[in-house]
Amino acid sequence: RGTDAAPEIPFAKPDSLTRVYAIASGKGGVGKSSVTANLAVAMAQSGLKVGVIDADIYGFSIPRMLGVSQQPTKVDDMILPPVAHGVKVISIGMFVPPGRPVVWRGPMLHRALEQFLADVYWGDLDVLLLDLPPGTGDIAISVAQLLPNSELVVITTPQVAAAEVAERAGAIAIQTRQRIVGVVENMSWLEQPDGTRLEVFGSGGGAAVADSLSRATGSAVALLGQIPLDMALREAGDGGTPVVATAPESGAARVLAHVAAGL
Ligand code: ADP
User: Fold this and answer.
1) Is 0.90 surpassed by the pTM of this model?
2) CA–CA distance, 56 with 224 (Å, rounded to integer)
3) Ligand 1 centre and the CA of 257: distance in Å?
4) Where, in this chain's numbering, is ATP bound (predicted)?
């Protein structure tokens, strides 16, 4: 192919059988990467062939959460992604020098994403998950352009302020005509020893985002699940083995497995 020609992206073909989900949030720290990592492993556990692209330039945390320390290898012109917990993983963090900030602008990000999609040997995937940077940046538009069939999953906390910014992340998808699959509320409550729920971050954010995006799109956007605050989830993520693998009976893991089964 000529150097100026757009590389061919198998997932972008109209007859591609791979479902592509972009995981988005309005702001950082709401658990977007934790959700992405766990959905990926839950899907792999159920027998699907799963790939993850970590496109979160500001906080690439997928390799740590999935316990990936290997670098991708290169064979001929293809990049072979490392595999962890049955999931093929490529992260922007694998291509930047450690300890350095990523100061890429939109066009560079677009090009990196294009390469991840075209030059990585993914094989036949059932599902490709993309962990997007928080907010409403250029990369969300690149995803919609490069992967017109991709669908959006919006992550928010129950907090009103978080929900408002999450709605904006969803509004980008409406402009780019991406389908919004649903909303996942994370950090919904902390279960107390007596079984009562302490709503640390308030309540209602997930339902508010789902309602607002339903009205904006004119079709039902569901609240797919509410994930409780759960120490097992945090510890498992820090340890590189997601909670759906280490503690599948925990409250958080059960919700995540349920959401994964519905996608
Ligand atoms: P984001 O990708 O939105 O920036 P992360 O997935 O990196 O967010 O999560 C931020 C931090 O919060 C991480 O340390 C993660 O382990 C923790 N975390 C996320 N969700 C939960 C939860 N439901 N319970 C406990 N800790 C959580």
Assistant:
1) yes
2) 23
3) 17
4) 26-33
